[in-house]
Amino acid sequence: MTSLSRELVFLILQFLDEEKYKDTVHRLELESGYYFNMRYFEELVTNGEWDEVEKYLSGFSKLEDNRYSMKIFFEIRKQKYLEALDKRDRAKAVDILVKDLKVFAGFNEDLFKEITLLLTLDDFRANEQLSKYGDTKSARGVMFGELKKLIEANPLFRDKLQFPVLKSSRLRTLINQSLNWQHQLCKNPRPNPDIRSLFLDHTCNQPNQPNGARAASPGTNHLMGGGVPKIAGFHPLSAHGMFQPAPGPGGLPANLSGWMANPSVVPHPSAAPSGPIGLGSPNNAGVILKRPQTPSGPTPMEYQTADSNHVSKRSRPYGTSEEGGNIPVNILPVTYAGHPHGHNTLSPDDLPKVVVTTLAQGSPVMSMDFHPIQQILLLVGTIGGDVFLWDLGARQRVSEKGFDIWKLDACSKELQGSLNADVTASVNHVAWSPDGTLFGVAYSKSIVHIYSFHGGNDVRNHLEIEAHTGSVSHLAFSYPNKQLSVVTCGDDRTIKVWDAVTGDKRFTFEGHEAPVFSVCPHYKENIQFVFSTATDGKIKAWLYDNVGSRVDYDAPGHSSTRMAYSSDGTRLFSCGTNKEGESFLVEWNESEGSIKRTYLGLGQRAAGIVQFDTTRNRFLAAGDESTIKIWDMDNTNPLTTIHADGGLPASPCVRFNREGILLAVSTNDHGVRILATDDGIRLLRTAENRSFAPIMKVPAGGGFGSSSGNAGITMADRATSFAAMENNEVRTLADGKPRIADDLGEKSRACKVTEITEPSQCCSLRLADNVPVTKVSRLIYTNSGSGVLALASNAVHKLWKWQKSDHNLAGKATASAQPVLWQPASGIMMTNETSDTNPEEAIPCFALSKNDSYVMSASGGKISLFNMMTFKTMTTFMPPPPAATFLAFHPLDNNIIAIGMEDSSIQIYNVRTDEVKTKLNGHQNRITGLAFSQTLNILVSSGADSQLCVWSMDGWEKQSSKYLQVPHGRSMPTVSDTRVQFHLDQIHLLVVHETQIATYDAQKLDWLMQWLGREATGPITSATYSCDSQLIFVSFENGSVDVLTASNLRLRCRINPTAYLPPNPSSRVYPLVIAAHPSETNQFAVGLNNGAVHVVEPSETEGKWGTSPPLENGAPPADN
Question: Rounded to two decimals, what is the model's pTM?
């Protein structure tokens, strides 16, 4: 090829890469042989795509070309051979040896013989030269390093490893210059030509004459990759072109003129060389740069490959091409996204990283907003339609609002019809007004609710607005004309402005061609305006008038985008995700309407739309890939990543408070985790110590790690009983000295234990059941909180579901509404396989998947996997002996389960591959409990031998073990169930034995506190943390339930069986297992020895179980 033809290939490669034609890019690289893409080659090697590796190399070199090439091909084939040996795939290894490696025997026969001898070894690492061979991933990395050196030294690759330095969209620029030149030659140049084709030279015909390039409506010309600004239909805002600020009070500030000023008539280029001529797009969002690098001086920039990780479509301002002299062209030059604009002078330690609490919400979190003044107040909206107001200092939910139509008669017939079909709606967005006196809620069904906030728990209905047809996507408060307003947008493709006092509609903005996704009101230099974004990736801007949009641009990647300003209002950012899952976080140059910088590090396969926030005028945070990613605003590279103790959804919601010392993030288990800086922790402690009257029930946490997190810990399977005890006792080692406090001593203190003896003192509901009576062996709430699952001793499962109703809008488990005993239309039941022996003697166990879709269960026979919707058995595995006695899902992979066995072993089993990954031995008797901590990366096991063991989740080696502390003067049964459960912090461990309740620091199995029951109650049968780990519910063989304060193991409430069980003098009825609701702190369920299941809550007047005992001598709780 000629030199110009070669350069044309590079231009085409750049264009294909920008348009994401990945396969075509690499095909052209291979066929032309002009550019060897090292990054693409690295990806192929890392992924072990050996056929593609050799195919790509063949476009540049053959094996026999030179010694460098021979060495390159040999290393590749040797690695392929070693991997086959490592997998014990001898047949494949022999095939590689014969077909791929034998060709090298002619060059080095001894080497080929040595390679052949590797087949005789059980592990080729026994060969001294291969003794340092690690795992496959590391070996490929080492090999690529060697290949890179060989390729760089190979003369055949000279001048093929660097992509020429090109400005972005260079091919587009040349086309624009050509079109401008053609337009200048027109006899009748039109002010706003519309280019419909590149196949013919451009000419401007007389008006109304066919040309094949008729004028089209502004905003539809996508020739250069994006829309163009509107030209007519509104008054000009600037008399002097695109970027000049308009004079007078109605003018636009200079730094907004690039976004907002569009002259109604555009002169010919000869008359106005600095103005746009309409041949292209003002923002040309067609440029896609992946892993962009910054050219420094003459150093050539490596070609940006379409297979790289970071994608950023970039808008660009109008400009003049350097190559084109003074010819005005609609090219959109950009700087490179990787350029670090300034140095990061703030430490990542200034960010909230310490998890201080988790607040359970009951359903997935959709939106959050901190109060602008009272910065410990957090507003949360959920997919279940609930809106919660939390006081973070007190860890209390001070207000709750469910979706409910206040005035149904005032609604349109369409909305009434929709509500008749389905009364539920999810929350799409929540937001406070700037002064914190109002907050708004946008729902998925046409409605916006505005509430007034008067402090404390005083939240009042203020306005109900049927704002849009269909879903209301977003809302925000603004002050046009010094009048507080609410700006909303929705599925009907409109933006509307409402008077926040009267609810009157003030403006309707129309012009989007797709549902409007978000709004961002702002003001600069006394000019009030609103940005809006739509699901088709369009960005528009509006003044508070009826003229129309002032901006018509494309969001990066045509993504569904949210926009936000820095705290001081001087910098504008946006973040969004497109339909392909590509996410973009950018800063905008307001003065030009272009992208100033694109931030790197976002994943390119987002499961949802990535949300972001700004703080301290310096940091950006985005919820992506189950983490919180942080950037310094002045640096495109990520500053740090916050994992927030794990358990985050793929695209979590994130929100800072005003000072940036608290950060809220949504969790997988339908909660909100609060992170704090040191200042944030001090703020919360100050607020926590203030006088605060509890207002309502306080669900302040979520599940605790394992998939069976809200299942109670039961002693129902103990082999023997124990000697009765005389008093309740608490023992603590927090100060290094055991402390014992008896029950009488506690009662003598200022706070008296609440005794509940009458049914009127609590709410109790026996769940309807038509299944033959048999004892309940296991019990758990569904993770959604809308159902209870029981496993009876006869191996039959029973599932109760609460339905949504006028009295139970959320459809959550409650003692005030009877659920349905669920059974599919097929009539089948979930029944475990049993052993040949009496199933009543088997040890049942089950674990529920996080999404409530599947339950893993066993009752002495094989382990069964059931579909929770159809009750069908998906598979069975692990036939006894030995039988499974406890099950727990791995916190990071539902395909991995830990199985406690009757023979005292623990098997780590992969359900998908049907193989035991490893077997753990360390106990002396059957396994009775398993609990994972993702925070500590450990598995804790407990056995009938009263022993605790800690196992690393990395290599599954045993880290430590310890036997339970024997109470002084008491005896321990030889064999008795011991159960374990992690605190919400994933560090402290609750240990339940029939003789005691104890807490440990799981890191070193340090014993912290011990609580001993009373003689009159009999043995402990079960215990569990409440959902927020603030309480512990303990059931006894005499039928009573004690409620302890978890922080100090002190009794706060005792529920006698007469309060929740019907009198039955003919038999002794008591709980065998207890389970805590996943989001209601004070609700629990008990499964009884007569087969009944009861849900128990405090009375509505009390709202909680007793009061927390005062701290002794003002000392903090022992485990704090």
Answer: 0.43
